[in-house]
Each structure stands twice: as structure tokens, then as C-alpha cells.
Amino acid sequence: MLVKTFGAAVFGVDAQIITVEVNVSQGINFYLVGLPDNAVKESQQRIESALKTNDYKWPGKKIVINMAPADIRKEGSAYDLTLAAGILAASGQIDEDILKDYLIMGELSLDGTIQPIKGALPIAIQARKENFKGIILPKQNAREAAVVDQLNVYGVQNIKEVIKILNKESKLERTVVHTRDEFFANVNDFPFDFSDVKGQENVKRALEIAASGGHNIIMIGPPGAGKTMLAKRFPSILPPLSLHEALETTKIHSVAGKMDKDTSLMTVRPFRSPHHTISDVALVGGGTFPQPGEISLAHNGVLFLDELPEFQRSVLEVMRQPLEDRKVNISRARFSVDYPASFMLMASMNPCPCGYYNHPDKECVCGAGVVQKYLNKISGPLLDRIDIHLEVIPVPFEKLSEEAEGEKSKDIRARVVAARIIQNDRFIEDSGIHSNAQMTPKMIQKYCQLDKPSQALLKNAMEKLGLSARAYDRILKVSRTIADLEKSENITHLHIAEAIQYRSLDRESWAG
Q1: Would you state the pLDDT for residue 511?
Q2: Which residues are 152's β-sheet partners?
Q3: In a shared domain, residues 230 and 133
Q4: Residue by residue, what is the 3-state secondary structure of 196-212?
Q5: Is the dihedral of CA 331, 337, 343, 349 positive or negative?
Q6: Separation of alpha carbons 458 and 384, rounded Å
Q7: Is the pLDDT of residue 509 over 60?
Q8: 61-75, 182-196, 251-265, 378-392: which range is least confident on average?
Q9: At 337, which helix (H) or strand (E)?
Q10: Residue 67 has what DSSP assignment?
Q11: Closest CA to 407 of 207, 272, 241
Q12: What tens digit of pLDDT does each residue of 121-176 get?
């Protein structure tokens, strides 16, 4: 008897429906074709044990299973439940009537318990596109898939529950998530707040500008100056995710298997902080079976690289193209996948190996040329893609001992959101451009026109301070954001002057 069941394969951040054709006929042996990997081939032992444990029979006949389309490689153990349902239906142990209406995915344990899978959200999205009535998948993934409306989602814990659904013996309760209510209820949920920060007013100002314009930023300062503390609070002043951005971000984390079982939708911008021992593949994504890297997991959020010079140079250099293109392409011999990677790069570093170069109280013990050698670990092309260079100095005791609370994140965020609204209106006709940091050279010419005093100031600064030519566009972008924060239509010499301060590492004399 021939029956068809349906599963899905995930490629990049999208899914494709896989049709599983099962034929049970006279004879012996088990044949599984359609380009399965080893994990799929090993499903026979898991399915057989799960069926016998739950008082069902493994057919003592010839079983041929084809996974179509047959030219796409099928990977992972998530097809166990799809195959098991097909075998039971083809051998007459369950009804096949409603198999065509449901997409079934899940990994089986030997006792019939169902384990979670990766990519539940893109699979559910594709199931709705293909007009399936519902989806049956592990209970741990049910809330994640239930974000998709107009689709019946059933979370199951063991194979007996699946069989009861297919035999129409019991109606399992649907998993329902009120996406908009849940999204807006948690959109302001942050563990850290800028009110905890004492002093550092100039740093807070620079972070507000970076958040307003989507600018990449690097903080240079001695140990204990508060660089990491400030970085952890940075997401709390970023504009809230839109519902579209939240779904896009959740898809990536779903594919990577990073979703908590109680989480249905990511409601705050991701903040990723990998250790400096990370490999280039782990950072940008890839591997034998490609998976999203840290830069994709930071999509629509922040990638924080603490102690930037300690990262391997090859790791840092692979970020150059994604920073420009805002996506990363992983190519293999048989296929290639694209992962989105539109993130803000935030980095911190000590000014030298000992950490005390330019410190107001402690003396630097690094030898001649050591400071410059340390800074040279960061290449010019990468530094060119960082808009704001910020020196962070230690907070004096008088500020630390103050009882007064600093400005709250929600107040800073309100100004950031207002500046982003101005930018959204400005770039409404420019597809894919949402912030000043994303402006092209032509857009800079159009939106960053300077009056004569501003031009004279910028020219004088570049000549006297030894600023490199690559700083020119960055200064104009940052000054445009400063003007937006002040709701100024035109860029003035005051905006240019402040933007010039944020190019410390471009000064030829900075490291002596």
C-alpha cells in the first residue's frame, strides 16, 4: 500500500516541503532513498523501537521510502515522525485520510517520546503557504510555530498522541499564541538600565548618537572604565523591533536551535557577545551543514566584540563584506545559502597591552612602538567601517559616590525613536535604507550638504588633526544623525565639530 506524508527541509532561513512516499508490499528489507544523510538513515532503529514499545508493529514486509524531491539532501533526525506516520498508514495500522492535511515533524526516542527540532518557525510559515490545514510537531516547538496564524498547531509529547490525532480518536488542544499581544507586552523588557551608570555623560551621548543613526562604534579605554557595563545597557536605548523584524529575527534563532521552549517570538533586539577565541566559521556561519553564525544571530540587533584586538585577525577580516552588504553567503559545491546579517557592530578595547596608555593616574609600562603595534591588530578596512571611535576614561570617586540616579534608558530611547522616525521619513523612497549609517555616497551628497563655515571647519580639522580621507563620509553621516537628534533640517558647524571628536583612531598622533 502506498501513502504520502509531508515534512520540511530548512535551507538558510526558509523551508521547503518534503514529500515522503512510503510503500509497504510483499517481500523483505527496508529501503530509504531520496538523498538522506546518516541521521535520516538511522531512523529505522528509532522508529522500530518506538513502535514496539507503544504496542504497534514494525511491518515484516518490504518497505520502500522515497523522500522527494530526491535531489535535495535531507539532514537530521527531525523526519522520524514523518517516516513513522507513513509506515503505520502504509501497513494499515492507522487511517491515512488526514495525512494529506498535516505536516508532521519530530525526532523519536526509543520509547516513543518526541524530541524538539530546529527551524519550527520557517517550517510553519511554509506549511501555511502550501495551504496545509495544520502542523504536528514536538510540544517544545509548539509556541514557536503557533506565531503563524491561520494554521492549526498541535504540540505532541509522544507517538501515541500523534496516532490518536491521525485516527481521529481524540482532539488534542491546539496551541494558540496571540502574537501581537505577546509582542507588545514584552517589547520593553530589559535586564539593564542606563540609570545604573554613574558619570560617563560623554559616553552616553555617543551611544545615543550611535543608536539613533545605526552607527558602528568602538570604545577605547583602560580596564574598569565601564566599557562592558555600558555595552550591556546599549540594547535598552535602541528602537523597539517592529513585528516584521521580530519574525525575521525569530526565524534565524529558530533555524539555529536557539529558541527557549517557552518563547514564541523574540521581542527585543538580540545582543550577541562571542568570546575572543571564536573561529571565523562560528562568527559568519557555515560548517559542513551550514548554520547561522553570530553575525546572523545578531541580525536587527547588536554584535559586541569585547577586547577587539584579542580576536584572530582572520576572524575580524571576514566581517568586512557582511558589514557592507548586510548579508552573508555560504557557498558549498552543491548549493549556497544566504543568511541576513544587518547588525550594529559594537566593540571595546584597551589602548595598549597593559591597558593604561593615556590613563589620567596610572603610568603605561608598554615599550616604544608597542601601543601602535597593538592598535595595528585592527586593520584599516575594518576600522573604516566603524563610524564612532570613543575614548572612555575612568569615573572619578566623586561621581561613583553620588546618590543621584542617572537618566533612565526609556528617556534616552524616546529621543532615539524620534530621530529614527525622521530618518524613516527621509528614506521612505529608498528601498532597504532605514538609518543614516546605511546611506550611500550619492545619498550623503543629497542629505548632508554643508554651509561654508561647516566646510571650512571640516577641512581645517582634517588637515590639523591628521584625519584620514576615509573619515570624511563617516563624519558627515554622524553629523547628520546629531542634527536629527536636535530636529535640525540642516547640518551646522556645531554638528560637524561634535562628529569630528568621534574619530580618535584616525588621528595620526593618537598612539604617539
Answers
A1: 56
A2: 134
A3: no
A4: HCCCCHHHHHHHHHHHH
A5: negative
A6: 18
A7: no
A8: 182-196
A9: strand 336-340
A10: E
A11: 207
A12: 999 999 999 999 999 999 999 999 999 988 999 999 999 999 988 888 877 788 88
Residue 139 DSSP code: G
Residues 62, 151 within the same domain:
yes
Q: How many domains does the chain have?
A: 3
C-alpha 329: how far from its chain's center?
15
Cell matching residue 427: 528614506
In a domain, 108, yes or no: yes
CA distance 424 to 486: 16
Tell me if 134 sits within 8 A of 101, measured CB to CB: yes
Backbone angles phi, psi at 419, to 5 degrees: -70, -40
Domain membership of residue 173 (yes or no) is no
Which residues fall within 8 angstroms of residue 362, CB to CB, at 6 or more apart? Answer: 222, 356
Residues 445 and 418 in one domain: no
Domain shared by 408 and 505, yes or no: no
pTM assigned to the model: 0.88
Q: Which domain holds residue 155?
A: 2-166
pLDDT at 508: 54
Residue 180 domain-assigned (yes or no): no
Work out the pLDDT band at 231, boundaries 50, 70, 90: very high
Average model confidence (pLDDT) across the chain: 89
